[in-house]
Amino acid sequence: MKLTILGCYSATPRAFTNPTAQVLETKGHLFLIDCGEGTQVQLRKYKVRFSRINHIFISHLHGDHFFGLPGLISTFRLLGREKPLHVYGPKGIKEAVTLFLKLGDSWTNYLLIFHELESKTSELIFEDESITVETIPLQHRVYTNGFLFKEKPAPRKLNIQAAEKWEIPRTQYGAIKNGADGIQEDGTIIRNVDLTEDPPKTKSYAFCSDTKYNEEIVPIIQSVDTLYHESTFLESEAHLCDKTKHATAKQAAQIAKISKVGRLILGHFSTRYPSIELFKEEAITVFPNSELADDGKSFEL
Amino acid sequence: MKLTILGCYSATPRAFTNPTAQVLETKGHLFLIDCGEGTQVQLRKYKVRFSRINHIFISHLHGDHFFGLPGLISTFRLLGREKPLHVYGPKGIKEAVTLFLKLGDSWTNYLLIFHELESKTSELIFEDESITVETIPLQHRVYTNGFLFKEKPAPRKLNIQAAEKWEIPRTQYGAIKNGADGIQEDGTIIRNVDLTEDPPKTKSYAFCSDTKYNEEIVPIIQSVDTLYHESTFLESEAHLCDKTKHATAKQAAQIAKISKVGRLILGHFSTRYPSIELFKEEAITVFPNSELADDGKSFEL
Hints:
Two copies of one chain form a homodimer. Chain A is an alpha/beta fold. Chain A folds into two domains: 2-154 and 200-300, Ribonuclease Z/Hydroxyacylglutathione hydrolase-like (Metallo-beta-lactamase, Chain A, 4-Layer Sandwich), CATH 3.60.15.10; 157-197, no CATH class. Helices cover 23% and strands 28% of the residues of chain A. Chain A is built from ten helices and 18 strands. Chain A has helices spanning 39-45, 63-66, 69-78, 93-103, 160-165, 173-177, 218-221, 241-244, 249-258, 277-283; strands spanning 2-7, 21-26, 29-33, 53-57, 85-90, 112-117, 124-127, 131-138, 144-151, 157-158, 182-183, 189-190, 196-197, 204-208, 226-230, 263-267, 290-292, 298-300. The first copy, chain A, has a seven-stranded mixed beta sheet. Chain A starts with a strand and ends with a strand. At the A-B interface, α1, α3 and α4 of A face α1, α3 and α4 of B.
């Protein structure tokens, strides 16, 4: 899994800070998560091969998370896209985007499929043979979801040396790869686990922006490898969290700690602070393995 | 009049080329003309004091001319704007923008007034004591207007030396400023023109993007000081003009020539060409006083 941050600042786009968007590369997919204004320019700037994006996940319908979507969809059309594009986001997103396209008489010449979300509990919204995507209901000023990306375990790998040692007939190798035990010529059973190796460890990534401090998400994101959690404010501005329904760096770290995640990435920074290093300094006092997102930064997960 | 180009490239925004937007500063106004995605970032980049923008003119509802509008309107809200904002654009613009704001539960806390346009003939859409703005109906794939900005002449200036020479009583000075003739003590009339000076020459600016070659606009833009006319293509791609309803640099120059304008500024360049200098080279063969727009470039008109 590789995560590239295209934008991780809150509210308005500025010359050197971009609103939320990121791409997650995993198992042959290039998932786009949120799409603030200017996302298509950021995709070009960081040389993301964005024709590979087939699935876009929108957390909520505030401008800094989706005003770049009509433009990206239009650009796909201008670039001659033919593959279907799936957009997952809050109810209303279909009407808004299609109205913009209709006004410009700019219908896509590819299939544009909206998956509108309105559930207040976590639901599975995407699944294929290698990965699942589930929603993480968040508490913000408008209906908002985070997204949990979980790789599925690959099949166990046949250990040929073990199979030969135990004199398992080659005709059984296919069945063993699919989970069957081995049977020696005399009928003795050799357990599958003794004939196969563990597949590579699966990875998981949870994206949680924007939200107030909310422990209800803990069971959903429990033990994920990497958690991206918003930290719009520092504790010195904690009094703004109630009204704006945002979190502080310390609160993000607290969620990371009680969820026992492997790593925390902080983002959605207010631009009121002189340096984003302050967010890390605050978070590591609670959760040492905290890192900072920044526009253009990539993480190997 | 001062014109600042924020973006002058066609179709999709890229790392170093921006879609159409420009600001015209005249008579205390800062008019924004078109608002492609990323316009608010360009406004910041070129240090335009954009809280001074009270009137936005949108030519048509293709993405590269208006997808930056919801973001700019939202940013005005975040910056605490209180003054009303007037938006002039094709019918449908109000529904589209308000839907985007509604979805984000982000109503403006200032008055947002839409002036929807649907006339196919030129109409006066803004007027105050110093300037008028009229539409220039263009021929594009969707309903499109250019905009003609014309300063009104200032009052004639009293020539005090002349008034003293002709021994005109001071009590008449106010009336003379307002156009009255002077009357000497013996009743002799001195013509107003001999007692006053011409006011500064008024300026006019015509913005025409996007459009195919269309001589119907000539009577409207006749003799303007500066014409911005789209030149998406060079003559080598003239065969694309019919389908896309765009113009070449040579066609733009032809319109400038028969309209007897003072200066032509070319823009809306397709990014397919290695250099925009090619547009100027083509245009000056027909209309010598042709110049190139470019992102960030300012013109004193």
